[in-house]
Amino acid sequence: MTQSRSTAAPMLDVIIIGAGVAGLYAIHKLRQQGLKVRAYEQGDDVGGTWYWNRYPGCRCDVESLEYSFSFSPELDQEWKWPERYGNQGEILKYVRHVADRFDLRRDVQFNTRITSATFDEASSQWTVKTDKGETITGRYCIMATGNLSTPRKPDIKGIDSFKGKWYHTGLWPHDGVDFSGLRVGVIGTGSSGVQSIPHIAKQAKHLFVFQRTANFSLPAQNAPMDAEKERRHKQRYPELRSQAVNTPFGIAGYPPPTKSALEVSEEERNAIYERKWKEGGSISFLYSFTDLLTNKEANDTASEFVRNKIRQTVKDPKTAELLCPNDHPIGTKRLILDTNYYETYNLPHVKLVDIRSHPIEEITPEGIRTSDGQHYDLDAIVFATGFDAMTGVMKEIDIRGTNGLSIKEKWSNGPLTYLGIMVAGFPNMFMVTGPQSPGVKSQMIFSCEQHVDWIANAIRHVSERQSRRIEATPEAEMAWVAHNNEVAESTLYVMANSWYMGANIPGKPRVFMPYVGGVTSYVQKCNEVVANDYEGFKLSA
Ligand code: N01
């Protein structure tokens, strides 16, 4: 009989789970504070989401000059982004460069999955276990585990009987996939599906897109980096970086709207939408008017503008109508940026299959059968079916706080956090961009840095107070969750069956998870908490 080997590693100040953008910055920041840290990473390299999501067409929807670390002015000046929006390969190259330039890899253990994390009351320490049989202890534990880290393959009858190859966009093979000459089915039309479909269509002999819900997508208008724009942006980097905090999404440089969509004539309104459409980008479009995310009537004007664009682009009127989203206001699900998505449906070998009217009944050894009796013969299936977002990864690790309470039990009716940073009953455990923080509704790297800086200060504060333990109080947590829900309810976001709501996972509690009160008010709140002597947190020896 073999026994799993259990070795005791030396105690750390901070255990970091994940070596994506958040984990890497946490290593850098906390090491500067003289702390002994180590990150544990499941993959064999750094990069997190940009390491796993290698599907063709994967590209960031925030411009590359903005989607980057801000902690090093030298890095800001040195790095050259080749395109307006970074593609997966470019962004991964950048993250790797950051890891090397700041010598971060020496504090990362790769190919290591954390299976459990347990808080010990007596010592005020966390003990984590790895899939390699190691046991590590540390004063603090930082969950730098990302929000979209748990890819989800749907539970479709017969799924394991398929004789061809299948792929998930969030777990794409590192050496790529050649679809040349193949009959391919893509299930899912969120960002991953919409970005990959035009690329898969370039190779496949036949492409069937199985769409349950149509989503809004805008043209990215991606292009090679404009040298003059880059020069001007780099000149103003410090100013733009500090302005980001005074914006709703943590992205500076977009003039905020001043008028309601209902205040202007239809002609003026459409001219503004047209200009934004040509400029490309979701922030710019959502900034057309003040009330697109709060007033349904205002939102309808933008939704209809985009639906008309789809009708003008897609030649077959029936396909165009199926591609027109009509179950949610524009922007209440992640607004997608694409390159040639709608145009792809004009290709003769690409067919949209409406699985809203005729759901997938089963996956057979040879393909997919829908409820109208149609069978689609396939050589490969691509699941672009998304993630168990925001809470999935936290629930996959057996995390236990005081009294042995697990995070899974604590969050059985949806996530409960204070500021999206801590959870009452889980002392000394911090989350980077956890639920109920703006994370996924902001420029992600900005929010990762803001949280890591806040956490680093909190750790320093605990030690200055000669305490060993910091935890959110249940009262502060309850008030924050209520505030989060109240803010969400005042917007149109709650009208969409999105992953923000947990709606994509059967049985997952329907709770609106991100904080949508905007980056400015969120950061103000975080700063106020500190100014008020860590209001809502309890320190103890
Ligand atoms: O996942 P999704 P994603 N049968 O959940 C469908 C970020 N991201 O990977 O809507 C049939 O959005 C599902 O249909 P429905 C970004 O934040 C960013 O595309 O549930 N269909 C939907 O169409 C994004 O929002 C970038 O009816 C099923 C799709 O699968 C987030 O990641 C790029 C199904 C899932 O869409 C997630 O995007 C990529 C089933 N059983 C991702 N189950 C950029 O930066 C699910 N679907 C640009």
Rg from Cα: 24 Å
Q: What's the shape?
A: globular
Question: From the helix content, strand content and strand pairing, which structural class follows?
Answer: alpha/beta
Amino- and carboxy-terminal Cα gap: 44 Å
**Unique bound compounds:** 3-acetylpyridine adenine dinucleotide
Strand content bin:
15-25%
Compute the number of helices.
17
Mean pLDDT level:
96
Features:
single chain, 541 residues, nine-stranded mixed beta sheet, five-stranded parallel beta sheet, globular, binds 3-acetylpyridine adenine dinucleotide
Describe the structure.
The chain is of the alpha/beta class and about 550 residues long. About 30% of the residues lie in helices and about 15% in strands. It is built from 17 helices and 21 strands. The strands form five sheets. Strands 1, 2, 3, 4, 5, 6, 7, 18 and 19 form a nine-stranded mixed β-sheet that branches. It has a five-stranded parallel β-sheet with strand order 8-17-9-10-13, with helices on one face. A three-stranded antiparallel β-sheet has the order 14-15-16, with no helix packed on it. α1 (about 20-30) packs parallel to α15, α10 (about 295-315) runs antiparallel to α11 and α15 (about 445-465) packs parallel to α17. It starts with 6 loop residues before the first strand and ends with a strand. The relative contact order is 0.14. The model is unreliable at about 1-5 (pLDDT under 50). It binds 3-acetylpyridine adenine dinucleotide. 3-acetylpyridine adenine dinucleotide (N01) binds next to α5.
